[in-house]
Write a structure and sequence with these properties.
CATH superfamily of the largest domain in chain B: Thiamin diphosphate (ThDP)-binding fold, Pyr/PP domains
Strand order of the largest sheet of chain A: 2-1-3-4-8-7
Strand content of chain B: 15-25%
CATH topology of the largest domain in chain B: Rossmann fold
Largest interface: A-B, 49 and 42 residues
Structural class of chain A: alpha/beta
CATH superfamily of chain A: Thiamin diphosphate (ThDP)-binding fold, Pyr/PP domains
CATH class of chain A: Alpha Beta
Helix content of chain B: 25-40%
Number of domains of chain B: 3
CATH architecture of the largest domain in chain B: 3-Layer(aba) Sandwich
Distance between the termini of chain A: 38 Å
Strand content of chain A: 5-15%
Structural class of chain B: alpha/beta
Helix content of chain A: 40-55%
Shape of chain B: globular
CATH topology of chain A: Rossmann fold
Number of strands of chain B: 22
Radius of gyration of chain B: 24 Å
Distance between the termini of chain B: 63 Å
Strand order of the largest sheet of chain B: 11-10-12-13-15-14-20
Oligomer: heterodimer
Number of domains of chain A: 1
Number of helices of chain A: 11
CATH class of the largest domain in chain B: Alpha Beta
Number of helices of chain B: 14
Largest sheet of chain B: 7 strands, mixed
Number of strands of chain A: 8
């Protein structure tokens, strides 16, 4: 399911004549994230996953749309709501689920947990638990791309909550000053934990804050994977051509609470239900059906995905906890 | 009326400077604001303006004179163009002053090398005498030559050549790709540097002082120190955070703190703190080559001090090893950074009074070389620790705990701690001196336990 470097161009004009293969790929990836997160929620309830667990349900179109236009050496970094990003860049669901359950077979040998996983091989640099801290780190990855002249870019994801952190603006300033190849993605899911954007953020738009730093920016419907993909293509072309950073603000929504322990009393049930009626996965499924796909085919894709997810859960549960010797390893290299 | 123009103090730590150039000559009329001379301080070459109006009737200190103490008269102004001053007597006094003060203030630690005390195992002909500042610069220069992935980043490191001249000449040699000036945004550029290190570059991040690194504390602790562990060993962070730490001189509470104990608290970090040029060069080179995040605590007051240092560009000081600067049998004095010099001074005075102290220069604070300490305790049975930082939860507290855990039966007296006083650093000169640990404090503590 490697979507990187796929060149298929979809414009609004041929909306009813999409490349079905592309739709299938995007859909599979979003569905994998959805089913994986549902399973993670379930395992949390059963006590297999502890601590914090921030689910990505509802936001799948954002990361899948963007990752689908990245190239081999590109890198990405995100916050603690990171399971979706790992799956979108082809990290093994088994390793991710095993890490969620704190097992030795997890990506961080069970020492990182839900918020801290990494894969150099897939260009995924975490998985960061301090709100906004990944933003300068992403600019550092972009700095290295430029330093090494490898024509790669870094995609740095952060939420609307992080968008008020001072270090984000320190980073905007330097990224623009130094023309770093970085695409900032603001995943605006409307709530920074329990505080709505309206109650936390001055001004009309989060993305337009980039204008003051000379950074091009755009608001995108983050619930539509094709619109995300189109916007990402344009933004990435800009970043890769040496013109410096770009900001895309994705209007999206998380269906679940901030973390598993969040009762989500700050919004109404109706608000969530209204959005769920036309979620990112339902939208792409109706496009697929319009393009000639059959219900039974959709069903068999879902079965296939459920099997991958169930296998990952079984793998995670059966895996051993890290050996107690691991307590003292990886503190320093030397 | 004749007015003395005095050698001005142009930085907090300046005690003397070089009168590099006169911009006026005898007979010139000057007004307030006119440039009269160029003076080289420990940090930069500065132009000096006249604050008086009058005619230059004599120039008392020649161009190119080094070691001119602050407040020394350097020229005379008169309201009357034709006044003739009796300068001969004055000149003699000034020459004498300049000469004596030069000896006193510009601390040169060469004699110790001749006594064979330092540096260890290096023949005299393979040493060169350099300041700590030059040693740090040479270390960065050599490591940047050796490895293209090493780059310098921080405030004023490039075009300004370093707020304390430590990066002098590096921009010219390596260009702006590898010597990167940042805006004044420590949190941001620390994070960017950490990201670059995750991508396997090797940043040397200069904090103008470690006081400002407080802004970047989250990135240093949460991102640089912990990510290797959280990633199960995947995400190394080969980065050096360096800059002056501790008190400079008269810069007040927010600019005069020792952070050794703060950083030494954190697993994942290595904390180094050099005293001499040998320490500075050898440790910084080791730090840049090390794959882990390193906190490198320098000291502004030491920058201008000269020590012998090995010439060999492959000379490295091992991380995690302390150095015995002076051997002795009666008491162990443990110190790091500027306190090593004070400990050695104290040991010289104590020697005259019949107490033979062993002086340990920690060099690395984390991981602490506890073996060298314990070995010394077994010999002397008495310990005094020295640090400029606050007493509570300080480096001395940690050492004291470790000694009682590992060598309780070898102690003949309680471990005593010399430290900064438990107050924010005062500005007034007399109070600042009281707040900082002095040679006498060390001597007093040693005498208390050498009964």
């Amino acid at each position: 399911m490697n979507l990187k470097a796929k060149k298929t161009k979809i414009t609004k004009k041929n909306k009813h004549n999409h490349d079905l293969n592309l739709l299938i790929e995007l859909h599979k990836k979003m569905l994998l994230i959805r089913r994986f997160e549902e399973k993670a929620g379930q395992l949390y309830g059963m006590g297999h996953i502890g601590g914090f667990c921030h689910l990505y349900i509802g936001q799948e179109a954002v990361v899948v749309g963007i990752q689908s236009v990245l190239k081999e050496n590109d890198t990405l970094v995100t916050s603690y709501r990171d399971h979706g990003h790992m799956l979108a860049c082809d990290m093994d669901p088994k390793g991710v689920m095993a890490e969620l359950t704190g097992k030795a077979t997890g990506y961080s040998k069970g020492k990182g947990g839900s918020m801290h996983m990494f894969s150099r091989e897939k260009g995924f640099f975490g998985g960061h638990g301090i709100v906004g801290a990944q933003v300068p780190i992403g600019a550092g990855l972009a700095f290295a791309h430029k330093y090494n002249s490898n024509n790669a870019i870094c995609v740095t994801y952060f939420g609307d909550g992080a968008a008020n952190q001072g270090q984000v603006y320190e980073t905007y300033n330097m990224a623009s000053l130094w023309n770093l190849p970085i695409l900032f993605i603001i995943e605006n899911n409307k709530y920074g934990m329990g505080t709505s954007v309206k109650r936390s953020s001055a001004g009309e738009s989060l993305s337009e804050r980039g204008t003051g730093y000379g950074i091009k920016n755009k608001v995108v419907n983050g619930m539509d994977v094709l619109q995300v993909r189109d916007a990402a293509e344009e933004a990435i072309r800009h970043c890769r051509s040496g013109k410096g950073p770009y900001i895309l603000e994705m209007k999206t929504y998380r269906y679940r609470g901030h973390s598993m322990s969040d009762p989500a009393k700050y919004r109404t049930r109706k608000e969530v239900e209204d959005i769920r009626k036309s979620g990112p996965i339902k939208s792409i499924q109706s496009l697929m059906l319009n393009s000639g796909m059959k219900d039974t085919e959709l069903k068999s894709i879902d079965d296939e995905i459920r099997k991958i997810v169930n296998d990952s859960a079984e793998f995670a549960i059966k895996s051993e906890e890290p050996n107690s010797d691991e307590l003292y390893t990886d503190v320093t290299i030397n | 009326m004749t007015i003395d123009i005095l050698m001005p103090a142009l930085s907090p730590t300046m005690e003397e400077g070089t009168l590099s150039k006169w911009l006026v000559k005898v007979g010139d009329k000057v007004s307030p604001g006119d440039l009269i001379a160029e003076i080289e301080t420990d940090k930069a070459t500065m132009e000096v303006e006249s604050i008086e109006e009058g005619y230059v009737t004599d120039i008392l200190v020649k161009e190119g004179t080094e070691g001119v103490k602050i407040k020394t008269p350097i020229a005379l102004l008169s309201s009357n163009k034709d006044v003739v001053t009796q300068t001969d007597v004055k000149k003699e006094i000034i020459d004498k002053n300049t000469h004596d003060e030069n000896k006193k203030n510009n601390i040169v630690h060469i004699s110790k090398a001749e006594e064979g005390l330092m540096p260890t195992n290096v023949e005299k002909e393979n040493l060169y005498n350099i300041t700590v500042r030059q040693a740090l610069r040479d270390a960065m220069y050599e490591e940047m030559k050796r490895d293209d992935d090493v780059f310098i980043i921080g405030e004023e490191v490039a075009e300004y050549e370093g707020a304390y001249k430590v990066t002098q000449g590096l921009l010219k040699e390596f260009g702006e790709k590898r010597v990167v000036d940042t805006p004044i945004t420590e949190h941001g550029f620390a994070g960017i540097s950490i990201g670059a290190a995750f991508a396997k570059l090797k940043p040397v991040v200069e904090f103008m002082t470690f006081n400002f690194a407080m802004q970047a504390m989250d990135q240093i602790v949460n991102s640089s120190a912990k990510t290797l562990y959280m990633s199960g060993g995947q995400m190394g962070c080969p980065i050096v955070f360096r800059g002056p730490n501790g008190a400079a001189s008269r810069v007040g509470a927010q600019h005069s703190q020792c952070y050794a104990s703060w950083y030494s608290h954190i697993p994942g970090l290595k904390v180094l703190s050099p005293w001499s040029s040998e320490d500075a060069k050898g440790l910084l080179k080791s730090a840049i080559r090390d794959p882990d995040p390193i906190i490198f605590l320098e000291n502004e007051v030491l920058y201008g001090q000269t020590f012998p240092c090995p010439k060999d560009s492959d000379f490295l000081v091992p991380i995690g090893k302390a150095k015995i600067e002076k051997t002795g049998n009666d008491v162990t004095i443990i110190a790091f950074s500027i306190m090593v010099g004070k400990a050695l001074e104290a040991s010289t005075i104590l020697q005259d009074q019949g107490i033979n102290a062993e002086v340990i220069n920690l060099r690395t604070i984390r991981p602490l070389d506890i073996d060298t300490i314990i070995e010394s305790v077994k010999k002397t049975n008495r310990v005094v620790t020295c640090e400029e930082g606050f007493r509570q939860s300080g480096i001395g507290s940690e050492i004291s705990s470790l000694i009682q855990e590992k060598a309780f039966d070898w102690l003949d007296a309680p471990v005593l701690r010399v430290s900064g006083k438990d107050v924010p650093m005062p500005y007034a000169a007399n109070l600042e001196k009281l707040a900082l640990p002095q040679v006498n404090d060390i001597i007093e503590c040693v005498k208390k336990i050498c009964y």
